[in-house]
Every structure is written in structure tokens, then in C-alpha cells.
Amino acid sequence: MRVIIIEDERPSAEKLLQAITTFNSDARILAVFASVQASVEWLQQHPPTRPHFYGYPAYRWPLV
């Protein structure tokens, strides 16, 4: 599972990162962002290869 974390509070982001890696050893943290704007910019530069969740689009691409 590939994961990005968007959380503006560092302690919460660290706890979330720890929880994800503890409960799913296959999780690959791609990035951690403190703002939605930073995450949108990153996602526009790194579009997903399979933007689907259980066969349904996870979000509209490109993000605007």
C-alpha cells in the first residue's frame, strides 16, 4: 500500500505514520505534507499509476 499523509500538526503526523507502519508492514509512506496545497502540488508532479480504489476512481485527475 502506498500512502501519503496530509496533517498540519507534526505530533499527529508522527503518530499516524507510526500507526500505519505498525499495523501494515507493507505500507510505503511516499510523503508527509503539512498543507493541502503542498500535497496537491506533489500529486500533480507524481500522478498515480492506478488511481482507483476497489475499481472506482479515488479522485478526479488532474487535481484542481
Quick description:
The protein has 64 residues and is an alpha+beta fold.
SSE order and pairing:
Blueprint: E1 2-6, H1 10-23, E2 28-33, H2 36-45, E3 52-53, E4 56-57
Give an overview of the whole structure.
Strand 3 and strand 4 form a beta hairpin. With 64 residues, the protein is α+β, with helices and mostly antiparallel strands. It has a two-stranded parallel sheet with strand order 1-2. The chain contains two helices and four strands. The chain has helices spanning 10-23, 36-45; strands at residues 2-6, 28-33, 52-53, 56-57. Helices cover 38% and strands 23% of the residues. The two termini are 25 Å apart.
Uncertain parts: none
| N-to-C order of helices and strands | EHEHEE
Shape: flat
Note the total helix count.
Answer: 2
Helix content: 25-40%
Alpha-carbon distance between the two ends: 25 Å
- Secondary-structure-based class equals alpha+beta
Instruction: List the strand order in the largest sheet.
Output: 1-2
Rg result: 13 Å
The count of β-strands is 4
Mean pLDDT across all amino acids: 81
Characterize the biggest β-sheet. Answer: 2 strands, parallel
Overall structural domain count: 1
Strand content: 15-25%
Summary tags:
single chain, 64 residues, alpha+beta, two-stranded antiparallel ribbon, 2 helices, 4 strands, 38% helix, 23% strand
